[in-house]
Amino acid sequence: MPRLLPIRAVLLAAGVLAALTASASLTVVPASASASASAPEPPAIEWGVVPADAAGPDGRVSLRHTIDPGAAITDAIAVTNHSVEPAVFTVAAGDGVVGADGAYDVRADDPEAGGAWIDVGGLDGDGLALAAGETRVLPVTITVPADATPGDHPAGIVVGLSAAESGVTVTHRVGVRVHLQVAGEIAPALRIDAATASFTPSWIPFVPGTLTVEYQVTNTGNVRFGVSGAAEAAGPLGLLPGGGGAEAFEVLPGGTATQRIELPLAPLFLAAGEVTVTPISLGDDRVPLPEAASAGFSATAVPWSSMVVLAVGAGSIVLVAVIALRRRAR
Q1: What is the model's pLDDT at position 27?
Q2: Is domain 190-308 given the CATH code 2.70.50.60 in the classification?
């Protein structure tokens, strides 16, 4: 199986990851092409990959299977060359990950987990040669090892096209996500760590500043889930409370995600509060969810601009008083 360059795959997903249309465009520039403005526009290569049955695309947005250890299943994908030029594509399976931006991705190195269990047939040797406008259905076989652990093993299948751009070979990829779960005991669990907070005062006196809460969520279970975060904070004795939330994000088994919540808060020299993460189901998942988790935080919240105004005001009062006393003394 060819190894693809580490370029981000655009994947089809569901739930909070919003289903994407699996298509991409690539401008193919011959190595000898001139950089002058008079050079003709090169043809664009566009292609897509979607789940399929024997007849072609079947309307699904991902491959989703629950398989017993030691068992195997078959499925299919359809790859279409939407351009007016023939092209030779690479096809490979890989392990699934969630990037720092929260987007699902497929690793480009050799798969070690779910991606290693996927075999794609119907190729032309090491590649897939498609004529202009051609669609080909490729059989997919997923074979789970007998000692595979229960739970989710995220993966994906990517279709790539390489070209030389400015003397560098670049591979663009599109793909389809594989929701692969090994049957057995499902144990959802999460942990929240490293909840910290920092306060940025407003430079407009007596206006609330911004409290930034950063926290880390780790999926310590064996199935994926989404997490929705919310934070509440207040000044001493619970004065002038404020709150805010973050968009839901996906956390894969064994994965860790760092999130940030910003909320307006009046500066009362000290702020303290709690951040809570609540698990949610994603897409068509039907698995139990872990309990919500929370962590406390605190931060100094000094109203510098207000203090400057008060200091200037107090200084002005003192100055006026001193002048008045001197006038009386005279």
Answers
A1: 29
A2: no
pLDDT tens digit sequence for 103-117? 899 999 999 999 999
Q: How confident is the model at residue 35 (pLDDT cuts 50, 70, 90)?
A: very low
Instruction: Report the 10 Å Cβ neighbour count for 124.
Output: 11
Architecture in CATH for domain 10-182: Sandwich (2.60)
| Distance separating alpha carbons of residues 308 and 311, to the nearest angstrom | 5
Q: Where does CATH 2.60.40.10 sit in the chain?
A: 10-182, 190-308
CA atoms within 13 A on the CB side of 214: 6
- Long-range interactions of 8-11: CB distance < 8 A, separation 24+: 8/99, 8/103, 8/105, 8/173, 9/105, 9/106, 9/156, 9/158, 9/173, 9/174, 9/175, 10/173, 10/174, 10/175, 11/103, 11/104, 11/105, 11/106, 11/156, 11/174, 11/175, 11/176, 11/177
Sign of CA dihedral 123, 125, 131, 132: positive
